[in-house]
């Protein structure tokens, strides 16, 4: 049973409900361009899962056959509870390393790019989560049943959805144990005292134990997004821009030691002799938001095309088991092109019109 697939319609309904609630209360936390971008990232993440699922299954089968020590009973309540708690501990360290190691930050950064904070932000996921699998290996080795682990990972992710909102205040004693909207708002903020805090997925106790907890302060409202803003609605660039910067620095940098440190030191690290040759970055206004002004009719067109793309994407998930590999990759490629084009238009790029015309012609050819 795919719990995430079951949850998606509820996610979308709750996003709509939050939008309506925000309008009614005079505190709307949504922008069309940002929301389309976040949902595009979620769609691409789902697509990447579809096209690599075969490879993941082969790796899982190899580890289980080669290294598994025992097989724990799937009907045991203790196995379920222990797996749920220990997976959240593993998630804490995966999440923390995703912020503190440049190579892993390149994967996780996409979740933090939004300068808004709402339930739509929760669906803003990476398409290149190559290191998350490493934290599942211990569970494979000790014999946690596959169905238990899949359900646990799904439930952990589903829980995290609801904490991405600005409309829920602090929740009293619950703040000490669980991840809540308040302490997760801190995690998404780019304020100096909020950066790299509150990594827990379900339980905030890990942050309290390991010294990474930060309370939300009334005198310091959270400002969301990256310290160095992405300034683009292109979901493909959002997934790859950190890796592109790492590649450029890796090639230019001298010395194997420096190259290795570049990948595994915290994001932004550069050796002293290299920084002297780099042009200083211009100061960034952390309270401003990227928001190119696009005509209302253009926004309506992009929204309509985006809805069509999402429907096609959801249909592809249903057809994945019967489609050939070539058909699956071709359909995924067209969906990725569509999402890229939507972002290109919202970015007001000069060549967006001919690109969109070419995409529509390609759609006719593929139909």
TrEMBL record:
Transmembrane portions of the chain: 41-60, 133-159, 300-322, 328-346
Pfam families in the cross-refs: FA_hydroxylase
Subcellular locations according to the entry: Endomembrane system
Keyword Lipid metabolism in annotation: yes
Main location: membrane
Membrane topology recorded in Swiss-Prot or TrEMBL: Multi-pass membrane protein
InterPro entries recorded: Fatty_acid_hydroxylase, Sterol_desaturase/TMEM195
Protein's GO biological process: lipid biosynthetic process; membrane lipid metabolic process
GO CC, alphabetical: endomembrane system; membrane
Residues of the Fatty acid hydroxylase domain: 80-212
Gene Ontology molecular functions: glyceryl-ether monooxygenase activity; iron ion binding
Highest taxon of source: Bacteria
Keywords: Lipid metabolism, Membrane, Oxidoreductase, Transmembrane, Transmembrane helix
Protein name: Fatty acid hydroxylase domain-containing protein
């Amino acid at each position: 049973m795919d719990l995430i697939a079951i949850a998606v319609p509820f996610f979308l309904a709750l996003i709509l409900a939050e939008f309506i609630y925000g309008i009614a209360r005079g505190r709307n936390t949504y922008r069309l361009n940002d929301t389309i971008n976040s949902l595009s990232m979620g769609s691409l993440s789902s697509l990447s899962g579809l096209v690599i699922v075969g490879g993941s299954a082969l790796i899982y089968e190899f580890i289980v056959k080669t290294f598994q020590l025992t097989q724990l009973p799937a009907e045991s309540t203790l196995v379920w509870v222990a797996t749920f708690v220990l997976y959240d501990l593993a998630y804490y360290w995966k999440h923390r390393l995703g912020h503190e190691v440049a190579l892993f930050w390149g994967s996780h950064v996409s979740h933090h790019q939004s300068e808004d904070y709402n339930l739509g932000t929760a669906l803003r996921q990476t398409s290149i989560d190559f290191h998350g699998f490493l934290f599942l290996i211990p569970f494979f080795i000790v014999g946690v049943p596959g169905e238990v682990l899949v359900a646990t990972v799904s439930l952990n992710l589903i829980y995290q959805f609801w904490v991405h909102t600005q409309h829920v205040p602090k929740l009293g004693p619950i703040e000490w144990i669980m991840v809540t909207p308040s302490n997760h708002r801190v995690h998404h903020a780019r304020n100096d005292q909020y950066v790299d805090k509150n990594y827990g997925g379900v339980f905030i106790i890990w942050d309290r134990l390991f010294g990474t907890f930060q309370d939300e302060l009334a005198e310091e409202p959270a400002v969301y997004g990256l310290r160095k803003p992405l300034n683009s609605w292109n979901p493909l660039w959002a997934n790859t821009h950190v890796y592109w910067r790492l590649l450029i620095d890796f090639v230019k940098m001298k010395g194997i030691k420096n190259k290795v440190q570049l990948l595994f030191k915290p994001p932004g690290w550069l050796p002293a002799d290299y920084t002297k040759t780099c042009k200083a970055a211009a100061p960034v206004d952390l309270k401003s938001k990227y928001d190119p002004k696009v005509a209302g009719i253009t926004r309506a067109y992009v929204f309509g095309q985006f809805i069509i793309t999402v429907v096609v994407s959801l249909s592809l998930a249903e057809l994945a088991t019967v489609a050939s590999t070539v058909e699956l990759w071709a359909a995924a490629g067209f969906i990725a092109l569509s999402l890229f084009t939507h972002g290109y238009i919202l970015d007001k790029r000069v060549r967006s019109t001919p690109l969109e015309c070419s995409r529509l012609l390609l759609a006719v050819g593929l139909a």
